[in-house]
Design goal:
Layout: H1 14-26, H2 30-52, H3 60-75, H4 80-105, H5 113-167, H6 176-180, H7 189-205, H8 209-238, H9 244-250, E1 253-256, E2 259-262, H10 282-295, H11 316-329, H12 343-350
Antiparallel strand pairs: 1-2
Helix pairs in contact: 1-2, 1-5, 2-3, 2-5, 3-5, 4-5, 5-8, 7-8, 8-11
Length: 360
């Protein structure tokens, strides 16, 4: 079960965080790798929270903790039984329709058509189970690869950002270019990641609590958009076309602390941290336009919750519409910043061991 703190953990500096990240990325055991990645996101979330200052709210890694925990369910194949049931239902229904249609096209007598449908349903059920078994194995491999990609892609840069600000605590805005120059240069990811850390730097410098919170939120949005662009092939590869809507509706539930949420349901209309301030610079206007282009109604001046549910998680605009609304609604929710495991369990994971007690 998640806990409210892990105060006995070392605070972590940029260089020590980079070492932790590299150890997690090099872990050969799939389950332990996921546990280490989840722990690294928690350490990064804490480090970035301290760097941005009190009142900044949840950051990208605060959310990545729960995304990584959810990834662990598939990596450990704990959702296989539910997936098999869903695949059997879908395969059986499709098979029944195909069987009936084939019987009709072949000119079978009407009283034989139910038999054709039954035969088709049986074949479809068997095929559906085979597809699900293969796809869940493939999904586990792809999700672990995506899990590693996010930590390597953003986690190492966050650790570098924290270390940079520790070394230059009074960094003027002009020096931000020095940090941004070290980010990946491949478009379009480079643009999104640059905007993410530019907003985090804005949050770091902000004295007003509302401005700090908004800048952190904008940084989160650009970071998660960057992440989902990078994860696009992993997400599509992990969800076979025939069952994408079924998986979105039935399997994509997740927990944030004690909160239980599902991407197929609208983000709950509670706890919105407030309106976004009007654009006061050409750069901010451009940023808001970019985010609105992919987040739609979830990124209006006032957050809209109706219609944020996703029907097909492989569609990036549906993902961003949901995630932007989720981030905005729960930005100041304390449970988002909870530790994913007990302190003793986190220590076991750091030592390269499976944790004891309840952790799944």
């Amino acid at each position: 079960m998640p806990h409210s703190s892990a105060s006995d953990l070392p605070p972590g500096t940029g260089s020590s965080l980079q070492q932790e990240i590299r150890q997690a990325l090099a872990e050969p055991d799939a389950v332990l790798a996921n546990l280490k990645i989840t722990r690294c996101h928690f350490l990064l979330a804490q480090a970035l929270q301290r760097t941005l200052g009190a009142g900044a709210g949840a950051n990208f890694h605060s959310w990545a903790v729960w995304g990584s925990r959810k990834a662990g369910v598939t990596i450990r194949q704990e959702d296989l039984d539910q997936a098999r049931r869903d695949g059997s239902v879908v395969g059986g229904c499709v098979g029944a329709v195909v069987g009936w249609g084939c019987g009709w096209l072949l000119g079978w007598a009407t009283h034989w058509l139910p038999g054709a449908a039954l035969l088709g349903a049986g074949c479809g059920l068997a095929v559906g189970r085979l597809i699900i078994r293969h796809s869940r194995q493939r999904s586990a491999e792809l999700i672990l690869a995506g899990n590693r990609t996010v930590l390597e892609d953003i986690g190492l840069q966050t650790a570098r950002f924290v270390e940079w600000l520790v070394q230059i605590p009074a960094a003027p805005t002009t020096e931000l270019a020095d940090f941004l120059a070290g980010l990946p240069s491949e478009p379009p990811q480079s643009t999104l990641l640059r905007r993410a850390f530019a907003h985090y730097f804005e949050a770091y410098q902000a004295k007003d609590a509302a401005a700090k919170q908004e800048a952190t939120y904008l940084g989160n949005c650009f970071a998660v958009w960057h992440e989902h662009v990078r994860l696009e092939p992993f997400i599509k590869g992990a969800m076979p076309v025939i069952i994408r809507r079924c998986v979105t509706r039935r399997l994509l539930q997740f927990e944030v602390g004690s909160l239980s949420l599902a991407v197929a349901q609208d983000v709950p209309a509670t706890g919105v941290f407030g309106q976004l301030a009007a654009a006061d610079s050409p750069q901010k206007a451009a940023d808001l336009y970019l985010l609105r282009s992919v987040g739609g109604r979830a990124f209006g001046k006032e957050a809209a919750h109706a219609g944020t549910a996703a029907r097909d998680w492989t569609a990036i605009k549906e993902r961003m519409r949901y995630v932007f609304a989720l981030f905005r609604t729960f930005h100041a929710e304390p449970q988002v910043c909870l530790a994913p495991y007990e302190p003793a369990q986190l220590a076991a994971i750091q030592a390269g061991q499976y944790p004891g007690g309840q952790w799944r």
